[in-house]
Design goal:
This protein is α+β, with helices and mostly antiparallel strands and about 130 residues long. It has one domain (about 15-134): SET domain (Beta-clip-like, Beta Complex), CATH 2.170.270. The chain is about 15% helix and about 35% strand. The chain is built from three helices and ten strands. Strand 5 (about 55-60) and strand 6 (about 65) form a beta hairpin.
């Protein structure tokens, strides 16, 4: 397996309407295993982590959590899917989004938020994968 490059590409991405509100879409082909973008935001304190009402919190480790709520964080527009085409990878205290497979132009970017998030905020799951099973 080739070594990962933790350098986001210059892929054309567009925020637009999706089934979950707003989503992030590929405006061009993205190859499998490409580093697409970085999930960014301000680091918050432990107290703020438990009192925050933000749904954009991303825990890097037990001492570091990022609040990705600012609109400048385009990765914050990536919606959940139980069958995602992307995955977040934590590397040296930063969060990078990688393509799990080739992503076609026009396709929405998704990653799995995890069972705990889905159970707490969006149960039953309403992602496109789960909706198609019904």
């Amino acid at each position: 397996m080739p070594r990962r490059r933790y350098q986001p590409g210059t892929f054309a991405l567009k925020v637009k309407r999706s089934s979950a509100g707003l989503g992030l879409f590929a405006d061009e082909h993205i190859p499998k295993a490409a580093c697409i973008l970085e999930y960014v935001g301000r680091q918050i304190s432990e107290e703020e982590k438990y009192s925050s009402r933000s749904r954009y919190l991303f825990e890097i480790n037990s001492r570091k959590t990022i609040d990705g709520k600012p609109r400048t964080n385009r990765a914050g527009y990536i919606n959940h899917s139980c069958r995602p085409n992307c995955e977040p990878v934590i590397y040296r205290g930063r969060i990078f989004i990688f393509a799990l497979r080739a992503i076609r132009a026009g396709e929405e970017l998704t990653y799995d938020y995890g069972k705990e998030y889905v159970k707490d905020y969006c149960w039953p799951c309403k992602c496109a994968s789960c909706r198609s099973k019904k």
